[in-house]
């Protein structure tokens, strides 16, 4: 919990997610160009970050609940299996993206779209290994704050998990939001869309690679 | 299959697509009116090549009687759209349906684009079972898959409703009917959209039993062919609005929305006005009615009159009218949304309009070739039949840079025979579009198809003015 590298890694993953045009900065640029206003780019950013964060939240919450009821040992095996499996599935299956959200999306539509895109791409899964190292220590810390012999250990541990989990989601979202804001505005204002023709590298491959690599690395190091 | 960077033929905006290199190859649907199968032709359109303007190859279909008509790419610039991005899919496969057979052919243009190979055939039974449609017509590569219009239902009775179905752009599986609520829509023909408005538009020709035996004069004079345009919510897949041109405007066909996604207008041709045989071009546009989304409206912006003619020179169907109708059966809009090309298949004229102000089109250029009466000659057309050409400008395609205009002269087999009963001798030509609005015939480009074949739709290598849609201005 107090390891700064974990938080840096978390923010780094947020930035990595934000970098992917399919995670929303490009959508914000398109809406800005459609209206011909920079304000439309800016207006699209919060719902995109929110939807992304909600998708991550689902994974974090699920994991936290799981951690309360099972020991860490099986999670240390299931997590990398999940990452590798999902990465391979994405490599083979690709993406369909048949969402009922288009160029006239509003706040709710963008939030939903971003939530679905982040979920389909496994954004939350990618931070699972970090959760393993952050939530359990947070529980311990919460318990230790209560002092020895404290009653209500369950709720206190849960509170510790919830606080840490929320912090994880917020830090990840802040980094993601910062990234989509910087790139979105830069492309809208100066860079231009020509960058897409050469610069839009295959993030789907990168993501699948990142998922599989994280899983393998976790197996080897964990 | 997936690439590392986007397909180089994908452009974020029509403005950028206009900078694309000139096409070197054209693909053309070739109807066989003899005993053999239809074919997809590959034409050399590279002016520096020794075989410029010639047919390089003919890829025969596996069956006879498909009636190849329109066709399109599996993926195009819309793959860059932000809400359903697939930038690393290749523009590689041509989806080539048989309008009569309902069979859909998938042709791979790699590794040699001059020599496409048939890699998959979808039989009509599969289309009927999965989408309950038949007679696939127009196709457009959308951000999330291939949209195809179909004229008839899947029961095989030749009736409607026609509609739109979706195909996967990688596996080519027929995914099913697109519509969730079709409202009053029954007839189908063309389909296209305004991606920036989440709006899909469809037009109307007729059900298979209304068209396959030829243009039925009784239905025509009764105003029974299509005369309505339908506007749909592209995301919710629901019918939103019908605009009726009035039953006197028969055959509401080609839809050409502005390419710039921030523009909210487009053009459509109505082939025959029953009161005077004229053809007309209609503009649709977004009307601000105070609501958030507004309503669509349509207005006639071009009238092209019939031309008086000696009845002896007219086919039986037209003798009584003593006039040749223009029969505008195809239009095409340049990528900059500035020039509209109008094919007058009856009078044998290709017209060019400046539509900078879409409400006030200005005729700036015209070329006469073929025609029911005119039989206009091509300077490179040789002296057979005294040089007279039949058929008339029909399926027209414009290069991405807007400088070259290609067209063929056949419409649809049974209709060809009614208006050109002497039997269409098919050709494909190219015009140069002058910057000032004029049109010049390229004397070096006159492709005469073998006698059994008739050319129909043309697609250009890397995309053209009716193949791609864009999500960015």
Automatic annotation (TrEMBL), chain A:
<feature type="transmembrane region" description="Helical">
    <location>
        <begin position="75"/>
        <end position="92"/>
    </location>
</feature>
<keyword id="KW-0472">Membrane</keyword>
<feature type="transmembrane region" description="Helical">
    <location>
        <begin position="45"/>
        <end position="69"/>
    </location>
</feature>
<protein>
    <recommendedName>
        <fullName>Arginine/ornithine antiporter ArcD</fullName>
    </recommendedName>
</protein>
<keyword id="KW-0812">Transmembrane</keyword>
<feature type="transmembrane region" description="Helical">
    <location>
        <begin position="200"/>
        <end position="221"/>
    </location>
</feature>
<feature type="transmembrane region" description="Helical">
    <location>
        <begin position="6"/>
        <end position="33"/>
    </location>
</feature>
<feature type="transmembrane region" description="Helical">
    <location>
        <begin position="156"/>
        <end position="188"/>
    </location>
</feature>
<keyword id="KW-1133">Transmembrane helix</keyword>
<feature type="transmembrane region" description="Helical">
    <location>
        <begin position="112"/>
        <end position="136"/>
    </location>
</feature>
Automatic annotation (TrEMBL), chain B:
<dbReference type="Pfam" id="PF05694">
    <property type="entry name" value="SBP56"/>
</dbReference>
<protein>
    <submittedName>
        <fullName>Selenium-binding family protein</fullName>
    </submittedName>
</protein>
<comment type="similarity">
    <text>Belongs to the selenium-binding protein family.</text>
</comment>
<dbReference type="InterPro" id="IPR008826">
    <property type="entry name" value="Se-bd"/>
</dbReference>
